[in-house]
Amino acid sequence: MSVAHKQATAQETNMATARHDYRFRPEPLWENGRFVPPTIVPIETAVSDWDWIDWLRYMRESSRNPLHGVTHMALTEFDEIATGMGAIFFTPTRPETVREAFVEKSGSLRHSKIRNAILKPALREGLLTAEGERWRQDRRALAPLFTPRHVNGYADGIRNSAGPHIARLLETDTIDFGAAMVDLTYQVLSDVMFSGELDGGRTANLREIDRFLSSMGRPDPLDFTRLPEWIPRPTRIGRMGIVKRMRRQVRELAESRLTRIADGAAVPDDLLSLILSIKGDDDRPFTMEQIEDQMITFIAAGHETTSRALTFLFYLLSQDDAARTRLETECDALDITRPAIEWAAALPFTYACFEEAMRLYPPAPFLSRELKQPETLGEHDLPTGSVVFGSLWALHRHRALWDQPDAFVPERFLPDVRDRIGRFQYLPFGLGPHICIGARFAQLEAIVLTALIARQFRLTLIGDHPWPIARVTIRPEKPLMMQIERRSQG
Ligand code: HEM
């Protein structure tokens, strides 16, 4: 019996007697020789059949875990439209409609209120949250920092930074692997972007960032209403202290760098120095506010995403011996004296595993927008204010787009068959004008870190299977406990 069928049966039983059981958690299983990790069981009834109790429960559960907001209909049919609580919600899942909405007609979209409510208090006018002319100018100014030439230049920096951090983090018997990956990607980013000067490598800072991101990423129930953004959200009160402290640290570092530059002293050749040297459209350098916003944004957008992808990748490998052996064999054969930029080409299966992990657990799962003018998307005429919800979770697991949609099948991403996957059905880095500016950096970093870890260590799950929960990123709900076995000297 397929997972979808099994889950459907469980649901039907529930539906006969009660409302949707948001607490139901299926067991992991093997299906047609493939590992299927436990995953969210979506609500089956059509939104049009819901009464206000269904809506209240849906809002409460979606606030606790936004993955519960993805309905069975979104996973099985194309372009779900729902009306409720005075708003229209449109979830494009036909790849052509996804392209139409986020590329061709992206000019009709703005970031949604809920996205702004979650991200803006901390990121202010950083690239992830800015819009209109401000965003256009900043994107143009920052784009050169992420060209292939620049990112390739970071490759050996990533590799040199990662080695000692991996040794420090994984030289132990058991570990919360998710936390270790957050630590690792933060340290690598901090080294490459700020030459490790941001916090002098203090993990206290890291813990704060982690706490801040996990609290920031949870929508407040009031975010689902039409109440204006300036009305304080109860669950967000008290979180801003962390943001203020981080901003102060970032400003102090930027100011001390600027002083050193003005004094003619040598400064590290890193991303911060580049940000401090770029000029906007008006030929002026970024203001201190802009620098703070962009640096906080790069920290927030740049380390958690990659760490989640690695966390789920190593979890999936820990369950699939054949895939793990193949990946280890490939990584063992790698000549690590070669420049890191050449590694990806030598590791096609490893890269396929990374892509498949991001299909099953897209680190940034939702592209949340609303219409700023009436627009036709797919077959629907939508009024101003309609929510356009790009659900990478639904797209990546859509029953009509993927074979064995919930199973771990890395081979589908191998180079000889990769082009069978439609351009607009797999979008871990988003699409359109707001496509991830750091994608190339993340791909490079992920392959380097995966190869270095897999050559030296083997991880075995010793605790519960991870239950995916969406905050800003998809993360395991509880610590992902792994046993570590040393394989080689690296
Ligand atoms: C596996 C790692 C990553 C994933 C899956 C990822 C995913 C995404 C996605 C889906 C978006 C689009 C959001 C939207 O349209 O609402 C995005 C935007 C963005 N990402 Fe990433 N990201 C990753 C790594 C990074 C890194 C390493 C950086 C920087 C160093 C970064 C910086 C940004 C920024 C600044 C934006 C906003 C772009 C704009 O609106 O112009 N990301 N990312």
TrEMBL record:
Gene3D superfamilies: Cytochrome P450. Coiled coil: none annotated. Pfam families: p450. The keyword Transmembrane helix does not apply. Keywords: Heme, Iron, Metal-binding, Monooxygenase, Oxidoreductase. It comes from the Bacteria. PANTHER family: BIFUNCTIONAL ALBAFLAVENONE MONOOXYGENASE_TERPENE SYNTHASE, CYTOCHROME P450 FAMILY 4. Belongs to the cytochrome P450 family. This is Cytochrome P450. It comes from Algimonas porphyrae. The lineage of its organism: Bacteria, Pseudomonadati, Pseudomonadota, Alphaproteobacteria, Maricaulales.
